[in-house]
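[job 0412] stage=complex_fold ligand=fe (iii) ion status=START
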Amino acid sequence: MTLTEPLPDGLSQREIDTEVAKAQASAAPADHPPRDYPPYRSSHFRHPKQPLIPLRDPEAVELSGPAFGVTDITALDRDLTRQHQGEPLGERITVSGRVLDREGRPVRGQLVELWQANASGRYAHQLDQHPAPLDPNFTGFGRCLTDDDGTYSFTTVKPGAYPWRNHVNAWRPAHIHFSLFGTAFTQRLVTQMYFPGDPLFPYDPVLRSVTGEAARQRLVSTYDHDLSTPEWSLGYRWDIVLDGPSATLFEEGGNH
Amino acid sequence: MSYAPTPSQTVGPFYGYALPFPRGGEVAPAGHPDAITLHGYVYDGAGNPVPDALIETWQPAPDGSRTGAPGSLRHDPVTGEVIGRDGVAFTGFGRVPTDADGHWAIRTLPPGGVSYIAVAVFARGLLHHLYTRAYLTDEPGDPLLGSLDARRRATLITRPEAHRTYRFDIRLQGEGETVFLEFE
Ligand SMILES: [Fe+3]
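[job 0412] stage=complex_fold status=DONE, emitting structure tokens
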């Protein structure tokens, strides 16, 4: 990932943009990205070619899911700025929102995990070779449980953009990775949250893999002044809606 | 369905210091006499092992209970360290990253009431995770297995090995591609 290594075949941003436009034009509006998405080059050998097998089974184990509780986390896990002796560098932020199912019901007491690059755009991961400084006071991993309202909340620093080797001059917009559980295994979600107004949005095939404009917007947090803490942190709000059926939806005879 | 869902995005290459946790594959209480091992390799469409996949498993307890239990990632409240399951509660949840050779393994108890363990696959390059099932035995009456032709059905059925071990390889693409599921 250093600049001295040759790029796989040196596709230009313009060539990627052409691929993005092609995928955009041929895609039916969908909530989730297609797994076969040529502009994201590592999807090439990693997407199934057979259609998924639809399964509508009220007895399916996947309509229930893992449970988490107070023993799974500690109180400090939600504050990524307090995991080391000193303060991490960067812009301190609060990220908060509600986790809901598709009926709008709060997902209570469930595990939310996040991970991210530091303020310079570098992950605390051995394989991240981006020549930006590591921060000894920042690991970039947190977790919490949602409360009775479905609300999660983290204190962290705003991550930096970083380069990657999808194509020449490929840069990821600043983002935070999220992992969520619902009441059913079918509602499992791993996704990424972005920051409003990032100039890199048009160039990023990962964000653009969500081909619907409205769906893409749902990955972008909003700056929320009421969530900002005076003299302390800037607030970003991001609500999350989990897809997929659950046992309770079946019980209520929901149409899905 | 009035609320539009949040789209999926790839887990990316750098989840390794965040999501996996110590003994994430040790779902069975230590030394349990009924413990089984479920393991296999993840392969891509070029036939290469996938060294940066994350496998999650979910299943009923041996008594058929599907409520699960907290404590998969039990933490020491003082140091914050993950200290592993308490050895008593069966949480039903496993999470393991693949090794450099694409291999993963969990040790668990046989699921009660069904013959399969639910599996979710996450990986760099995979924009949306995939669901499949590892059947410990071929179930003649199973509605999913019954809907598949013999060749595809075989991708869901584990191969028994010695010492209560079951082999379940996952092929993301191409020859012998695993059956992946979409729940409605
Ligand atoms: Fe990232």
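The two ends of chain A are 44 Å apart (CA to CA).
[job 0412] exit 0
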